[in-house]
Design brief:
Blueprint: E1 10-16, E2 31-38, E3 42-44, H1 53-59, E4 72-73, H2 83-89, E5 94-95, E6 100-108, E7 118-123, E8 128-131, H3 147-156, E9 161-167, H4 168-174, E10 175-177, H5 184-187, H6 191-195, H7 204-212, E11 216-219, H8 222-232, H9 240-252, H10 262-270, H11 274-279, E12 295-307, E13 310-311, E14 318-320, E15 326-332, H12 338-342, H13 354-371
Bound molecules: flavin-adenine dinucleotide.
Amino acid sequence: MAAPLGGITGAAGPVLADDPALRGRPTTPEAVGDFSIAADAVIIASGGIGGNHELVRSAWPTRLGAAPESLLTGVPANVDGSMFPVAQAAGAHIHAPDRMWHYAEGIRNWNPIWPGHGVRILPGPSSLWLDAAGDRLPAPNFPGFDTLGTLGHLRSGGHEHSWFLLNERIISKEFALSGSEQNPDLTGRSVRRLAGRLGSGPPGPVADFLRHGEDFLAAATVPELVDKMARLEPAHALDAAAIGEVIAARDAQLANGFGKDAQLAAIRDARGYRGDRLMRTAAPHRLTDPAAGPLIAVRLRTLTRKTLGGLHTDLDARVLDASGRPISGLFAAGEAAGFGGGGMHGHRSLEGTFLGGCLFSGRVAGRAAARG
Ligand SMILES: Cc1cc2nc3c(=O)[nH]c(=O)nc-3n(C[C@H](O)[C@H](O)[C@H](O)COP(=O)(O)OP(=O)(O)OC[C@H]3O[C@@H](n4cnc5c(N)ncnc54)[C@H](O)[C@@H]3O)c2cc1C
């Protein structure tokens, strides 16, 4: 960015070669020329840092335990924070870089679009969630309940991976995958395909993961399943008898209607809502019920996603310097600004509302830039 004394006066940089790569795929870094544009205002809307593991690790907050050694990449490679040092060179201050939102339910995409591509499972509540040592996660860390709380719990215990234990009945009803390419019924606006989610068997993209995904294992019995889990994670082989006991203790709570298992109570509660009962939450049943299909284990790893800290702005989206003064002509919006003003939905944010903050902060920035 051009930043002589007095503020930002435009932007300059290399022009990259044309590249026919599909959306989300990496493109060529080959420069074929330079550009320089004079402007009264520059708005940085370059996204967050989730594609840059080094940056994620270096800013990792201690409240989420130690930074993971291995991460799956949940955002396209261009979400690399590359505009942060450019803005900093122009005097911008980065606010709360340790505010971030990542998922514990990451699986490696068998059909990747970008390097290290991971996908987040959007789970219903029934899978039994075990840490890498085979211990069941404590309430309220159930699938889909408290993203940052569960991530913090696992990372504080030093677990690089965890496991969902379930069966075919649960995966068929409760697994959805995050990402436009994983939801062709929604992105293709196909009511017929959406209605297919009510049918038996897992939705197509989930079935593909069951077939091809390196993190998915299926077996008829607990010992067979645990044996396969040990082959996938040999350094953390679990004891089949101990896992059998964890499953049996959970299943025993279904023997009568007075069970005290908090997860089973939450499942029953979820089924009180007709939408969840129809499309999202399997009726409580024993995990080892042979009629519920083979047992399934899914290995989960940390998946990077959202950036809640970023370029420090005021309520007019003007980028501030370290002393809190606006840098003339420089604005920021979206994830680059921690969703505007350094975190529009607060420290822990609110699942599913990130895009709204990005759009809203973009509107604020555009209006402020137009006012001059
Ligand atoms: C798989 C997935 C699922 C999601 N699901 C949800 C959801 O359900 N609900 C929700 O609210 N949010 C969701 N999000 C988050 C939401 O999509 C993002 O927070 C939002 O898109 C960020 O918008 P943005 O405009 O700030 O950044 P981006 O959408 O990342 O756009 C940044 C743009 O800047 C470009 N860029 C970056 N660096 C440079 C550079 N140096 N020079 C030129 N251009 C550059 C990039 O190519 C990109 O086009 C999801 C994100 C992903 C990846």
